[in-house]
User: Fold these one by one.
Assistant:
Number 1:
Amino acid sequence: MATARASRLRDIILKAGLVDELQMRSAAAHQEQWGGRLIPVLCELGFVDEDAATQALSEGLRLPVVHLGTVPKDAAALAKIDVQFCDERGVFPVSFKDRVLTVAMADPTDIVTIDAIQAKAGVRVSGVLSAESEIQAAISKHYRGESGFQSRPSRARQIVTGEVAPPPTDAYSELDLGPPPPRPSRQDMPRVGANTLLDEIMEVPKSVAGFSEEELARLEAARVAQEKTGSIIRAVVELLRRKGYMQG
């Protein structure tokens, strides 16, 4: 059942032309190794935009998209599912009326999760489609009482996924790092990679580094992009190894 459901989601995303076969296989390898739901994994790897994926599912499943930003708190609905279950399954109880619990889901075809909710709550469940980020924001707002409703990912994540334009390639040359320190001799210079250097920069307190918020956002975007690239490469390598194209 789970395999058929995942296949249906893959078919919808592929048919919409949002990703190609290689990207889908990379996402599958990532899921197999590190877990996660298909759509969030595709978004995390930077292959698709969340809004585009949600719209494709809406058209493929013939379901409207429910936006949770203005949904009022329904205490009766929240009492039916605990917050840990919501976090783990990526669901949010929208309303409870006439013994029917309406649940927002990034994947309304997830019958296993719907059955689990029905068993836990002892009510009928009606699944509706919502974006994963909106579901997580609703969980934070209505269960944890966190102020504000942030349905958009961070600016660094937006840059990686193409939701906002990345800074120009020479943008980092504009950072004011102060005068350079005395240059050591070549034999005294430690061999460190770009990732290590960037991590050290990001760990420097603002008061010491003197970076502005915009400059820190640029550095964070670069770090997230490096992590995303590494995840893609690892997923592809793992896939090639399983298929017998690589050894070791």
Note: Residues 79 and 121 are 9 Å apart (CA to CA).
Number 2:
Amino acid sequence: MISLKSIYKRFRQWQHDPIDNEFLSHASQRCSNCGHEFVGNYCPYCSQQGGIGPIGWKSVFRSIGEVWGLHNRSLLYSIVQLLLRPGYFISDYIGGKRQVSFPPVKMLVLIGVLGVIVDFLTGAIHGMLYSHGEKMAYVNDAFEWLNTHVKGMFPPPSDYLSGVLQWLNTHPDVFSLILLSFLIVPNYYIFRFAPRNTRHTLPQGFFIQVFSTVLFLLLNMFYDMTGLGWLVVILGSAMVFVTYRQLFGYGIWGTLWRVVMAFVCAFTLLSALLNINYGAYLLENGDSHAAGTYFLNVPIAIAILLVVLLACYYISRPRPVKPSSSQ
């Protein structure tokens, strides 16, 4: 009888290395398709896989899987990988294993289109955190709370902001891409000295957020079909934590505080953008005094961002080992 512990152990092994890249044999073999002699996994003459023998049950299961796209580099295969081993999967791709994934930008576009279709078919009438209302209603409530308790730092709820949120409500893919794109620079500094993917580059950070956006869009579709906003929030938070832990290799607390700081930086950048946008709106409507107040918030937000990034960078950087003093 197979124990749950052994099943979990095999699952963990699969998460780390789901594809067997070792040679089937180091000995010469004859291709069953063209008869060419070769060493390795694939015939260099006709590209047929080596070790192909008589038809068996393995062939049946493989053929059925190919019908449903469950073969290497397919869209469905990549989505399964992204859901079950998100950080390891992204790490494989940015580390040079391009064949493990469906092209990520193409994946983002296709999932975005599918998300629009699901939004249209389901009506997307439930609120993300409430049982009724629009998806972005909680954002409007958040700005109302912030404007009350942190006066002047955030744009107040208004017809203009409600219009912006209404647009984001109908374009959740764009909102996810905008918010997650603000994580590229913070991640570059906060996870600069991570045990895994140390000193990752900004282009790698771009692909990290492309994959992350795909995950958020999948969760958005799950929300549209179920209306379970509270479950989506829990799953989304857990997925972010698991992704970053697998991707950068920190422990539980090391991952947790860095992820929190990265999102603080992202929302600070988003706040600066909204202040610029709202200030320009006020300026166009002749209220230059109020516009100046919101424009002034932008350098304050940038200063807060720099302080957070410098503090995280200083805390995370490796310390030189002090030589032991001779007795």
Note: Residues 252-284 form the longest helix (33 residues).
